[in-house]
Every structure is written in C-alpha cells, then in structure tokens.
Amino acid sequence: GGLGSGVVNTASIADGAVTNVKHGTGSVIQVVQGTFTGTNNTTGTTLVDTGVTKSITVTGSNKVLVSYTCYMSAAAGVYGVRTVLLRGSTQIFLGDQPSTGMRATGGGWTNNSLGDYTTWNHSNTFLDTPGAGTHTYKVQFSSTYTGSNQARIGRPIGGTSNPAYYTTPSHITLLEIAA
Questions:
Q1: Shortest CA distance to 28 belongs to which of 68, 58, 8?
Q2: C-alpha dist (Å) from residue 128 to 28, 84, 104, 162
Q3: 164 C-beta neighbours (distance < 10 Å), count
C-alpha cells in the first residue's frame, strides 16, 4: 500500500523509532524466564531456596503472570514436599492455613513406605499485581516433616553414580501483562 493506506512496512522502521505504543488490556508486554538445572536438598520444614528465581521490571499497574515448574523428590519418611512462591521476601498464592500443617503453593506426598522414593513436578500459575518497579520472584521448598530425611529439587533421591537417577531442569516464567 501507498502512503496513507494504514499499512506500515516494519522492515523500514528502525529499532526504537516507535515510542508511546499503547498496548491493549491483557497484552503481553514482555516475557522473561529463569531456569535451574542443578540440584538442592534440605531436611525439615524450614523453607530454603530452590534456585528457581527471576526478576522483572514492571511498568505502572501492569500485572505479572507467574508460572513455575519444579522437579521435586522425597525420601521415605519425609511424607511430602511443599513449594512456596515468593515475590521478594513475601510469600504469595498460598492455601489457607489449616488448624495444623503448613501453607504451600504446590506440594506432593509420598506413601512413606520404607525405601519408597517419590518424585513430582510441582507447577502453578498465578496472576500477580506487584506494582511498578523491579520484582524478584522465586520458589522455596521444604519437607513437610521435621525429621532428617531429604527433600530435593532437580534429581530423585538416591546415589549420584547410579545412571537411573537423572537430573531434570526447573523454571520460572514471568509475563508482564498490560493492565
């Protein structure tokens, strides 16, 4: 089309030449992803970092769609593993506090048989409204039992020299969504 036809050839527009573009409500402004390909483990119910983390800089009142998947495992005696989503140091998107027990964003449970090792992919998605600025999202984890048996991210419980014990990546993906 010619001049005035409403058609723009994007190949002729230099990067950064167009400013003040209005994105419609619900449009994706940016996408960032953090990956974790290592392993971490812990015992007990105290939350520790999984290694799954990513920062995003948000404009105005835009929202952030947070999605994560963490490959988790637990030894017999752990009962379960929980994951908790945080923005900065604030836990977000948790189940209500039961009369006993812990809050979590994701979880898995083993049948607790001797020698039984259970694995899960913990996943969740949440639309957050963090406010303008740079925000760091991360996933923490813990056992759901106070004993000494391990909960782990990135690899099944077991010997590191056994070829059956594969490693698996985890991720957190953040999408800035126009308000």
A1: 58
A2: 14, 14, 16, 41
A3: 7
- What pLDDT digit, counting tens, does each position of 102-158 carry? 899 998 887 666 556 778 899 999 999 999 999 999 999 999 888 888 889 998 876
- Which tokens hold the place of 168? 């698996």
Q: Is 69 exposed, middle or buried (0-12, 13-18, 19+ CB in 10 A)?
A: buried
Question: At which residue do the structure tokens 């402004």 appear?
Answer: 29
Rounded Cα distance between 72 and 41, Å, is 9
Task: State which amino acid sits at residue 133.
Answer: G
Task: Specify the pLDDT at position 101.
Answer: 77
How far out from the chain centre does Cα 122 lie? 9
| Cα torsion 68, 69, 75, 78: sign | positive
Query: How far is 80 from 82, CA to CA, in rounded Å?
Result: 7
How far apart CA 34 and CA 172 sit, in angstroms, is: 5
- d(CA 98, CA 164) in angstroms, rounded, equals 38
The single residue listed with the structure tokens 């953040």 is: 174
The answer to whether 100 touches 177, Cβ cutoff 8 Å, is no
Res 13: pLDDT: 55
Tokens of 62: 């835009």
- Per DSSP bridges, beta strands 170-177 and 48-58 are unpaired
